[in-house]
Every structure is written in structure tokens, then in C-alpha cells.
Amino acid sequence: xxxxxxxxxxxxxxxxxxxxxxxxxxxxxxxxxxxxxxxxxxxxxxxxxxxxxxxxxxxxxxxxxxxxxxxxxxxxxxxxxxxxxxxxxxxxxxxxxxxxxxxxxxxxxxxxxxxxxxxxxxxxxxxxxxxxxxxxxxxxxxxxxxxxxxxxxxx
Length: 155
Hints:
This protein has three helices and seven strands.
């Protein structure tokens, strides 16, 4: 049984196979207030990295239109009280510049070609990234997430 997912369509291994893994300095605006390193980029490690192709409308249960797509795996929200329900997906970060070479995909997704690839999203209490923050010594994302959890628990 799936635990419930984000209302997004993801393209797995978007940047290629493991041999095409890479690192990049990322501008993560949600981290700017979290530490004295606010002007330092976050070093993202991308290994067989996916990207979010499309933000879907929030639904309770299965994304029926997406379920009909070939090669789609659906992780439905359980219900509006435990799942994501009516909470929108928030784009937390993009990787600029790479989208220009994929104009057809950009036009199909409805994004502006300068938007960049969506590499981090959050929907209520679910956070997803295309990169592996756990593989760096930089704890800012983990600290940010823990603060969000504490705020949610105390609020």
C-alpha cells in the first residue's frame, strides 16, 4: 500500500543514467533565512535524477487523468484529512538553463522555457528533491525540514 504522494508528474532518470550523474551549485531560496550561509549555494548531487514535469491539481485520492498515461505510477493521497487533499504543490527550487534544449517538453508542460527544471517541491508535509541532500555535509535542508516539522507540531 502506498503512503500517498505529491500531486506531480515526474520524469524518472531525466538527466540520464548513473554514469551521467553530476553536481551543481543550487540557489535554494527557502534556505536563505535558515543560516549564516544564506549566500552560499547548496551543492546538489544528482544521481539518476528525476524532475517534475507537471504540477497537478490537488485531489483527494487518485489522479485519474494521470492514471491513464502509459508508464505512470500513481501514489494517491489517502484522503483530505491524512493525505495532501486540497493543499497545493509548492515549487521550492528549479535548475535553470537545462530546459531550453527541451522546448517540446516545455511547451507541453505549459512552462516558460526560462523557468528551468523543477528539482524540489513541497506539498503540506511531503518534500521531494531531484538531488540527494543526504550525500553532502551541508545540513541546511535537514535543519529547514526539522523546523517545518516542529512548527507543524506546535501549531
